[in-house]
Design goal:
single chain; 224 residues; mainly beta; four-stranded antiparallel β-sheet; 1 helix; 19 strands; 49% strand; globular
Length: 224
């Protein structure tokens, strides 16, 4: 039913991140806290972040500053499954998604020292990275990561491409967002994908050439 659900103790730290799992539970996170919503039940945790990823079983990982924290929500509070603090992770803590049972974390901009990095569920770094120097058609500016059990999709906002990788990191192809969205210069601000393979892209663009009029659009894309 339609209505408003107030998150407890949000205060001056309102949620800026949203995600869901295959059981229909909703997760929200602010800078210093997070919540899990299941029906009318709301659970809160004193861990927040700048990136939020949820696996199919409801395991949650938050990236903030220079660390990754894996948590499980409990009836009161939450339990930390792992905490990973490594040099350089601050550059890779902007976007995160689970794909093929691994957690992928991406920077805003990819480069030789800022790669998309994969981690195992226990926080160990996996032996695969994306964005290495010299790659053909490299990722330029990550805006969202979309993952499932078989693949990882990277929304490259600067290059206006949707890039696909297998769960092991091998390339599977890409889609030209200019042709897909039929817009002259779209800017994808965010994206999410359902378990049925339907993606939703939040897109901004200027209406007409140098008009100064901008609008936001939501696209529903099937078959991903």
């Amino acid at each position: 039913d339609a209505g408003v659900l107030r998150l407890p103790e949000a205060g001056d730290d309102p949620p800026t991140l949203l995600a869901g799992d295959d059981s229909g539970r909703i997760y929200a996170a602010g800078r210093a806290q997070s919540w899990r919503v299941a029906g009318d039940e709301v659970r809160r945790c004193d861990v927040g972040g700048e990136a939020l990823a949820v696996d199919d079983e409801g395991g949650v990982v938050l990236a903030t500053g220079g660390e990754l924290v894996g948590i499980d929500f409990e009836p009161v509070g939450c339990a930390r499954r792992f905490r990973l603090d490594e040099e350089g992770l601050r550059l890779r803590g902007r976007f995160a998604a689970f794909a093929g049972g691994r957690l992928w974390v991406a920077p805003l901009r990819v480069g030789p020292d800022r790669l998309l990095t994969a981690y195992e569920p226990d926080g160990r770094k996996a032996p695969v990275q994306l964005g290495k120097e010299g790659e053909r058609d490299p990722i330029v500016r990550t805006r969202a990561l979309l993952g499932d059990q078989r693949s990882l999709a990277v929304v490259d906002a600067h290059a206006r491409r949707l890039r696909f990788f297998a769960a092991d990191g091998s390339r599977r192809g890409s889609i030209d967002l200019l042709r897909l969205l039929d817009l002259p210069l779209p800017w994808v601000a965010g994206a999410t994908r359902s378990r049925e393979g339907v993606a939703f892209l939040a897109v901004g663009h200027e209406r007409g050439e140098r008009s100064g009029l901008f609008e936001g659009l939501l696209f529903r894309v099937q078959g991903l």
